[in-house]
Amino acid sequence: MGWSRIPPINLARLNWSGIGNTNDEITGEETLRQRMFNFCLFQHDGPQVLCLYNVPVMNLNYPEDSALEKIIAVLKSIEFVDMPTDVSPHLSSIRN
């Protein structure tokens, strides 16, 4: 599948910074072509990272229906929290 890349989107808020980008499908059925959003958020001074890839944000035929700004607004509400030191055993592997 072909993609058109658009410049990166710098993201930052509270206790993290990150980067995102969008990719537009340039092959396939024109009525079904999508814009996809990818991003990673990195906790400042901590080990936590949140990444998502290929999140559909817009049908290229309906740019007025783009959800990208809404998704970025939700991302800006995120705050990483430190995990307690007395983590239950099933979560200890996440911390390591």
Characterise the protein shown here:
Strand 2 (9-13) and strand 3 form a beta hairpin. The protein has two helices and five strands; from the N terminus they run E-E-E-E-E-H-H. Strands 1, 2, 3, 4 and 5 form a five-stranded antiparallel β-sheet that branches. It starts with a strand and ends with a helix. It is an alpha+beta fold.
Key words describing this protein structure:
96 residues; elongated; five-stranded antiparallel beta sheet; 2 helices; alpha+beta
Compact summary:
By secondary structure, the protein is of the alpha+beta class.
Order of helices and strands: EEEEEHH
Structural class comes to alpha+beta
Distance between the termini: 37 Å
Major sheet summary line:
5 strands, antiparallel
The shape is elongated
Secondary structure: helix percent: 10-25%
